[in-house]
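I'll show a record.
***
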Amino acid sequence: MTLNNHEGSDVFDYFQEVLPETPETHLIECQELFRIDLTQAMRNLRKATGLTQKEVAEKLGVTQSWVSKLESANNDHTFESVLAYLDALGADFEALIYWQGKEFTRVSTELKLMDENELQISEDQTESSLNLVPIESQNKSSTVNNIIRKQGFWGAIAA
């Protein structure tokens, strides 16, 4: 008969010896709990929509195995994969960022497929929405680019 050196001792005391509580281990624990909560929420959402893993896979153009791995907390997930999965289910993702114990900002991916009517926008709307750089900055940039074209990059610096 083999004697157990830890008989009668608390399992938590043993784990504390082997894996002490540090800021790093606490962060890892929080990350793993988040991963478990996220994948559970994803599975619950899929089931609420009445879709199977295979049906979600067909919508995404991937295999059922890929969806299964994405729904598992035992696999690493890219943010893009999670967003694609949620989009296939018609869901959105929103994150709250806290700073100094208070809500700092709320960020939503606003995933939504647009129909063709929403995509047809006027040229004025396109032009104004794509010109995000102020006109003054565009003019300065244009002037610098003209100098570089005429004198070369190093010539412009030496001049």
Remarks:
- The domain at 9-91 is CATH 1.10.260.40 (434 Repressor (Amino-terminal Domain)).
- The chain has nine helices and two strands.
